[in-house]
Amino acid sequence: MATVLQEGAWAETAGLLASISGVGLVTSAWLLVSTVNFTACASAEAAAAYAGLVPLAHESGTSVRGRRQIGHAGNARLRTALYMATLSAARYNPVIRAQYERLRAAGKPTKVARCACARKLLYLAYAVVTKGQEFDPHYREHSG
């Protein structure tokens, strides 16, 4: 796995993903293989839906009204890899840490906040790969 990501066709993309704090070798591999180097997903929203990180309503006509939560649909291994990467990113990535702390301060449960951060991490990975530039945690400050 390390050889493919360091010397193979996806080496450049893996290097871009490695610039995101919290995304390591295993997460990079799952992202690249599952999304075929992000060519299988037309947008970041489509990638999040593929990973199963979008909240879905639990409804059945007018009789069942459940709360929105992520379902079991989607690529469970990719979702797990992103969730586990979020454990590190919530400590070392300033963008993910800020979102995690904001959600926890708003009273969201730990797992809800981590799933939201996993989705944010996927959005960051999609942006880094599609734009072809390394992750910059101060991007919003520079862009005005």
TrEMBL record:
Gene Ontology molecular function, alphabetical: DNA binding; transposase activity
Listed Pfam families: Transposase_20 (PF02371)
Source organism of this protein record: Kouleothrix aurantiaca
UniProt domain Transposase IS116/IS110/IS902 C-terminal: residue ranges: 16-101
Name this polypeptide is given: Transposase
Superkingdom of the organism of origin: Bacteria
UniProt signal peptide: none
One GO BP annotation of this record: DNA transposition
